[in-house]
Amino acid sequence: MLLKLNKIKNISISAFSQLMLLMSAPVISRLYSTEQVGIYASILAVGTVIGLNSSLKLDIALISESSDDSHETMAVALFLGVIISIIVGSIWGLTQFSELSSVICLILLSISISLFQNVTYYLTRLDKINYLSKVRVVRSMFISVGQIGFGLYFTTFIILIMSMVIGNVIPIIKQLKFEIVRLDNIVNVLKRNLSYIKYAIPQGLLNSLTMNLPIIFLSISGEFVLAGYYLMAERLLRTPVNFINTSIRQIFLSDFSKSINKFKCYLSWLIPLILLSLLFYLFMYKFSTDIIVFILGSQWRMSAEIVMVLLPWITLSMIQVPATGVLIYLRKMKIYSFVELVDFIIKASLLFFFIDPDDFLSGLGIYSLVGLITYVVIILMSSIIVNKHVSNK
């Protein structure tokens, strides 16, 4: 009983952290122009891809490592995250952006995302879920206060980016213990985790690219205003979903790793999430336009149209959280990577060869349908794998 109450408490705290970001949206949408939000979106999309993958997925490998090995892996993950973020961020920024400030923002954002990702998984490895939930609240508070407070004086994308950088770093600063990393440390860690990361790296890269591909496509096409509409639509839609995709993933992994009957544990998460996602879909289908106009203002009505297109795909992402968690914990990254590769190829082909930016919504509908089918495949595949894992034991 105490365990269930603790789980509910952690989920509630994480949900509140996402609610804080949602509460800042009405102010941000009225302070910043659609174009500035669009430029912010383009840097955020690329920074997310770089930051989530710059540690070569050693952050996730921490979950199933022994206590003796995890300390060294964490040190190497932090080191690689910073170095690769600087290198890749510089290359992308200098080739895509005309202003040095945009390049610097991209590098700093990538580093901050990488640091936050590494620390959150390390805390999960140590089973410090209560502390992790509080970290997420502090992060949301710094981001919201920074974007609104500084935005009262400077309404540029730089404020939006730097507020996120500060929000990512400040809550975890006590956990950041950089150590001297030698070449042999890097070789040992990579060799020890090679069987996992050789599939996890392409899977993670493809997954993060796929999630951010529409904004990357729009920014390359120069459609920053449309990218702004897309970001606000996705933020409002994902905010109530993201506490599932972030905090609950860590809680599920901790719960699943300690459970004796893993299939029962899997179903105990999957079934309630199916019911929750159905309720969420029906609610948003009915009221999304009214909600967006009320929260963001009538000038953001275009975002409501984008929400309706994305709704089936993003709603289903709630259900796939325990499914992807199973694949991560059981290290079934080879088959996961293959599914992500097929999904990415189809979506990238749609965006860059068949979708006209002037008719973006029609193409986005097909894009969303492909994503929905991919989630269904992952859920079915994970259910079979975890059931087979239990049967073999």
From TrEMBL:
<feature type="transmembrane region" description="Helical">
    <location>
        <begin position="75"/>
        <end position="94"/>
    </location>
</feature>
<feature type="transmembrane region" description="Helical">
    <location>
        <begin position="306"/>
        <end position="330"/>
    </location>
</feature>
<dbReference type="Pfam" id="PF13440">
    <property type="entry name" value="Polysacc_synt_3"/>
</dbReference>
<keyword id="KW-1133">Transmembrane helix</keyword>
<keyword id="KW-0812">Transmembrane</keyword>
<feature type="transmembrane region" description="Helical">
    <location>
        <begin position="266"/>
        <end position="286"/>
    </location>
</feature>
<feature type="transmembrane region" description="Helical">
    <location>
        <begin position="145"/>
        <end position="173"/>
    </location>
</feature>
<keyword id="KW-0472">Membrane</keyword>
<keyword id="KW-1003">Cell membrane</keyword>
<dbReference type="GO" id="GO:0005886">
    <property type="term" value="C:plasma membrane"/>
</dbReference>
<feature type="transmembrane region" description="Helical">
    <location>
        <begin position="100"/>
        <end position="124"/>
    </location>
</feature>
<feature type="transmembrane region" description="Helical">
    <location>
        <begin position="337"/>
        <end position="355"/>
    </location>
</feature>
<feature type="transmembrane region" description="Helical">
    <location>
        <begin position="39"/>
        <end position="63"/>
    </location>
</feature>
<feature type="transmembrane region" description="Helical">
    <location>
        <begin position="213"/>
        <end position="232"/>
    </location>
</feature>
<protein>
    <submittedName>
        <fullName>Oligosaccharide flippase family protein</fullName>
    </submittedName>
</protein>
<feature type="transmembrane region" description="Helical">
    <location>
        <begin position="361"/>
        <end position="386"/>
    </location>
</feature>
<dbReference type="InterPro" id="IPR050833">
    <property type="entry name" value="Poly_Biosynth_Transport"/>
</dbReference>
